[in-house]
TrEMBL record:
This is Uncharacterized protein. It comes from the Eukaryota. The lineage of its organism: Eukaryota, Viridiplantae, Streptophyta, Embryophyta, Tracheophyta. It comes from Aegilops tauschii subsp. strangulata.
């Protein structure tokens, strides 16, 4: 109106819908982050001889598998995040 440009607000849920459903096709960053963390947990499970898996196993879950490991309160942010992604 009167030559002014206005912002057309749209909800985040609508932005995250697929384009086929009428959304903008953005990914939900929280779900995407959790999926990437779950992928890291899967790699620790699948490749237990990798350097990263051996270091984390020695430090955080020496007597069990990554599938049974618990997140210690004093654990690193990285390990706590991987455990969160595993869930």
């Amino acid at each position: 109106t009167n030559g002014e440009r206005k912002v057309h607000w749209i909800s985040w849920d609508k932005m995250c819908e697929s384009q086929k459903e009428g959304g903008l096709g953005f990914r939900d960053p929280e779900a995407f982050n959790q999926a990437l963390l779950a992928k890291q947990a899967w790699r620790l499970y699948q490749r237990p001889s990798s350097l990263c898996a051996r270091v984390l196993k020695a430090r955080y879950y020496p007597h069990c598998s990554i599938l049974n490991a618990t997140s210690p309160t004093a654990g690193s942010f990285t390990f706590r995040s991987i455990i969160h992604g595993r869930e």
